[in-house]
């Protein structure tokens, strides 16, 4: 008897490995996958502008990174004690305008470089609902707790989502593979019917793009969460975000669908190193623990020699200190 509905995932037409750099943009699910890729020392940059929930902000960020145009002081606005940008997450804000501008422009420069060097992109769309400044019509990445009367809330249409990415897929992303995902995070504040409509809009728009552009493929993170892991035990207490176990499971499925099999051996070795880093001996000065650290330092040096492009300096410093 079958008590699950596992999804038959079509592998991507290309494989991610240590030889290609990647750029991830989008919702907090992009952060979850990006952090796991970083943990395994895959050369990726994720969300230089901070978390981006809606497709218009993802497309706007890519356009800005392609141009490399820096922001000016008059692009910032005040929200309480902070200077903020409507194109950026609040994590880039500051009480000092010059400091905020410096942080934002450093993000532009690092993101532009990441886009130029990227061999592939992973774009995760979270919601089709957007907030638009009434005064200018600009869709914002984040409202930064400004008064609600300054914004108009509306849902993007499928055509608007598709239209925002067409110039990018025919321009700077033309020769770059793109993995699309829809975030499995439920936006309960929108209401369940509105959340379903939003996710449906994103899924239809992405599949229109995939049908049109051969460099695109779809990874069903949303479907894995809502159908394969169809149980509230796989959610955090807020009943909106996937639990750590759920994200780990989706990550395993992603590895099978998109990662080069040669990465598996490196992942196992890095997992073993991380367990060794987390080990806390009863007596750090004991001969046995010194021997343990000496052995692990030798293993790290061997790994560094085998994979010269990866940075094991943190691990080596720990075991040699």
Description:
It comes from Alistipes hominis. InterPro entries: GSCFA. With 321 residues, this protein is an alpha/beta fold. It folds into two domains: 21-261, Rossmann fold (3-Layer(aba) Sandwich); 270-320, no CATH class. The chain has ten helices and ten strands. The strands form three sheets. A five-stranded parallel β-sheet has the order 2-1-5-9-10, sandwiched between helices. Strands 7-6-8 form a three-stranded antiparallel β-sheet, with no helix packed on it. Strand 1, helix 1 (28-39) and strand 2 (44-46) form a beta-alpha-beta unit. The longest helix is centred in the middle third of the chain and has 21 residues, at 97-117.
Low-confidence stretches: none
Strand content: 5-15%
CATH hierarchy class name of the largest domain: Alpha Beta
- Total helical elements: 10
Distance between the termini: 55 Å
> What proportion of the residues is helical, as a percent range?
40-55%
Largest sheet: 5 strands, parallel
What's the number of extended β-strand segments? 10
In CATH, the topology of the largest domain is named: Rossmann fold
Domain GSCFA: 23-254
Pfam family, one: GSCFA
Organism: Alistipes hominis
Protein name: GSCFA domain-containing protein
Itemize the secondary structure elements and their pairings:
Elements lengths: L20 E6 L1 H12 L4 E3 L8 H13 L9 E3 L2 E3 L12 H21 E8 L3 E5 L5 E2 L10 E5 L2 H12 L8 E5 L9 H21 L3 E3 L2 H8 L15 H15 L4 H16 L8 H20 L6 H8 L1
Parallel strand pairs: 1-2, 1-5, 5-9, 9-10
Antiparallel strand pairs: 3-4, 6-7, 6-8
């Amino acid at each position: 008897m079958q008590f699950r509905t596992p999804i038959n995932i079509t592998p991507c037409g290309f494989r991610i490995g240590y030889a290609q750099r990647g750029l991830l943009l989008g919702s907090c699910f992009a952060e979850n996958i990006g952090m796991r890729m970083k943990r395994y020392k895959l050369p990726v940059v994720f969300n230089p502008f901070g978390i981006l929930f809606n497709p218009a902000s993802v497309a706007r960020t890519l356009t800005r990174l392609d141009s490399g145009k820096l922001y000016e002081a008059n692009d910032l606005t005040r929200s309480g004690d902070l200077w903020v940008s409507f194109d950026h997450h609040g994590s880039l804000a500051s009480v000092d305008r010059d400091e905020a501008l410096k942080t934002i422009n450093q993000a532009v420069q690092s993101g532009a470089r990441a886009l130029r060097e990227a061999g592939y992109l992973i774009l995760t769309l979270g919601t089709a609902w957007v907030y638009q400044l009434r005064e200018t019509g600009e869709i914002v990445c984040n409202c930064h707790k400004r008064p609600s009367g300054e914004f108009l809330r509306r849902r993007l249409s499928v055509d608007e989502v598709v239209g925002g990415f067409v110039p990018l897929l025919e321009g700077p992303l033309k020769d770059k593979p793109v993995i699309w995902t829809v975030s499995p995070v439920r936006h309960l504040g929108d209401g369940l019917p509105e959340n379903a409509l939003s996710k449906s809009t994103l899924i239809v728009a992405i599949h229109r793009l995939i049908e049109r552009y051969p460099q695109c493929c779809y990874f069903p993170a949303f479907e894995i969460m809502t159908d394969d892991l169809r149980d509230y035990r796989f959610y955090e207490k807020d009943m909106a975000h996937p639990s750590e176990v759920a994200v780990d499971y989706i990550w395993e499925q992603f590895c099978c669908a998109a990662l080069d099999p040669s990465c598996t051996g490196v992942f196992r070795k890095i997992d073993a190193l991380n367990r060794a880093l987390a080990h806390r001996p009863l007596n750090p000065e004991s001969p046995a623990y010194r021997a343990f650290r000496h052995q692990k330092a030798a293993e790290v040096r061997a790994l560094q020699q085998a994979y010269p492009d990866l940075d094991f300096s943190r691990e080596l410093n720990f075991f040699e200190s």
